[in-house]
Amino acid sequence: MLLCLGGAGALRMGSNLVLSFRAMSLFHMLVLAPDRPVCQRLWEVLPDVACVWWPSQWARQRPSSLYNDNFPRQALALYEARKVLLERLVLDHGLNVLHLDGDTVWFADPYPLFKSAFKDRQLVFQQDNPFANAGVFYVQNVRRGDGAAWVLEELNRRVARFTYNPESVRELPHSDWARAPFFANADEQANLNDIIASSLSGQVSFAGGVEFPEARFKERFAPRKCWSRPSANGCDGVAEARRKMADGAWARMLTDGRLGCRRAPSRAPSPH
């Protein structure tokens, strides 16, 4: 199991999670924390738990974007790091991994279900209507080159792309209108659900997780000067975002059952 703690404030919930699983005779856990002090605090009550931190990942400099600038830096670093670590555990080391947010509560051992009803499924997600939850899911029997491996790899590619190259959102099929300031949604759950849609449709889509939010959240997070002075330097993209959000046909194309895939020529593999 990979347990992900966002900081010292999550220690009580994280400790409860470890103890709950130990009461179910589940002991193979790895805790990912943002820094050494969090692990040291955890070791005060659970000295034998495996806890790691990743200083270089947290220290990475992220360029300015509406997404990078408006959400907690530590949280964004955790979301990025845990998916990179997950990919390495699964594809480099051949492990099955239950990926967990630190604030979850479990009342029963999930493994009998994973190994019976879901034994032929490589990816098992908690349903977060209408989405797959990017914080609680199980990965099993995944090997490089198969469809489920593509999902894990593609998620890290997209998170890195929009985190470190926010301007690349303009290269997407339905976002060539975009101008700075870019929102460039690198959220793991939004991108995960686009990737699942890509697998189901067989066509690569960024529609619901990146292209639609580029307009929607640009309106919400843009500098105030862009509303009082739309022609101000760096505000071109905000006016266009407002026009897109007023275009019902454009919004429906990206958010209804068509998945915004019509102009995406590349094909995506399908996991099971």
TrEMBL record:
Give the top-rank taxon of the lineage listed in the UniProt record for this protein. Eukaryota
Q: Which Pfam families match?
A: Nucleotid_trans (PF03407)
Q: Which InterPro entries match?
A: Nucl-diP-sugar_transferase
Give the Nucleotide-diphospho-sugar transferase domain ranges. 28-131
Q: What is this protein called?
A: Nucleotide-diphospho-sugar transferase domain-containing protein
